[in-house]
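seq/struct pair 1
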Amino acid sequence: MKKMLKMGFTLVLAVSMLTGCGSETKTADGSEAVKETTADTKGTKGSDTEKTADTEKKETETDETKKQSSGTETATGESGKDVKLGFVCMNLGNPWFVEVKKGFEDACKELGVTGMVVDSQYDVDKQVSDLESLINDNYNGIMISPIDQNATSALIDKAKDNNIAVSCVAQSQDNADMRYIVDEYEYGSIIGENAAKWINENLKDQEKVKVAIISQDNVEAVIPRGDGVQETLEKMCPNVEIVSRQAGDTPEAGMKIIEGVLQQTPDLNIVAAVNDSGGIGGYQALVAAGFTGDDPVAVFSGDATDEALNAMKEDNTIYRGTVDLNPYGAGFESAEKLFEYVKNGRPTEQEDIYLKPVAVPLKDLLDGTYKK
C-alpha cells in the first residue's frame, strides 16, 4: 500500500513539473497574464529566444520600410492628417488678404492637413495673443502677416525653439524661416507709375493735378510703399500736387478719407491708393459725388483683387489701374513651404520669395492683354 501511494505521489509531481513549463498564469483579478517560457533553452538550435529576436528584427525592418515608402510621413513621424498649419492675418477686411486666405486654405486641403486662419483685425495686442495661442496649441507651422514685427519677434523665436516652422507673407517678419514678401518701395513705384502715365497722357496741360494718397502708414513696414507712390508721381509729373496722404486700407476707411478730401478739394483729380482695399473706398466716394469716366478723374491702386477688376470693367469707369501681386499664389505656396519644412526640417538659412508686381492699366484689362 505504501509502495502504491509513493508511486502515485511521484506521478503527480511529474505531471506538475511538466505543466509548469510554458504555462499561462492568472493575475490576481483572474485575467490571463503573459505566457511564460522556461529559461532553459541553452544549446537548443532555433530556440524561442532566437526566434523572438529574429521576429522583432523583421518587424522593425517592416516598420522602417513602411515609413520610408509613405509619402505623407514627416520627419517627426507625423502623417499629413496630423499636421496643423496656421495663418495669423493682420486684417481680413482687406480683399488682398482674403485671396491669400483662399490660397492658404486650398493648399491645406490639397495637402490633407489641418488649416486655421485667424484675423487679428489690425490689433497688435490681439495678433500677439493669436500667435501665442497657435504656439501653445502645438501647431507645426505658422504663417503671419505682421502688423508690427517688433511686437511678435520674441514669439517667433519661441515658436522656432519649439521646432515650429514660421513664415511671413506680404510684410516682413525678419526672424521667420521663410519670407514671402514684396519690395515695398518698388511696389509703390509701380502704382505711382501707372497713375503718372495716365496723367501725362490725359492731364499734362493741366496746371495742377491734385492727388490724394490713401496710404498704409499705420503699418511701419508698408510706409515705403506710400513713399514709392508719392515720389514716383512727383518725379514723373511736375504738375502734381499732393493734397492729402492718409492711412486707410479698408473700403470704409478709404471712402471716409476721400469724402473728407472732396470737402476741402472738390476739384480732386487722382486717388492713388497703396492697395485695392483703400482704392475701392475712394472710388465709391468719387462715384457717389457724381464723377464719371468723362471727368479728368482717376483711381489707381494695387493688388488686382476681384473687386477692383470688376470696378475697372464698369461702363464709363474712373477706376483706371491696379497692380497684380498674385495673393492667391502667395497663400498657396506659403502653405506648401511650411508643410515641406514640417516634413523635412526647417531651413538652416532664411529663404526669401519675392512677389513680382505687374502693372494692370485699364486698357490691358479691357483688351485682354492682362489675364488674372
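seq/struct pair 2
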Amino acid sequence: MVGPGSLVIIGVVALLIFGPKKLPELGKAAGSTLREFKNATKGLADDDDDSKNKDAK
C-alpha cells in the first residue's frame, strides 16, 4: 500500500521532472482521461446488462 511518504516522494519527483507550470495541466489531462474511461466502461457494462436481460426474456 502506498503511504504518505511515498506520495510525497512521487510528488517531488513529478515536480522536478515536469516543473510547476506543467503539473496542473497534466493533472487536468489525467482527470479528463479517467472520466472518459469511466464513461466508456460504464457504457460497456450497461450494454452487457441489456443483452443479458434480452436473453432472459
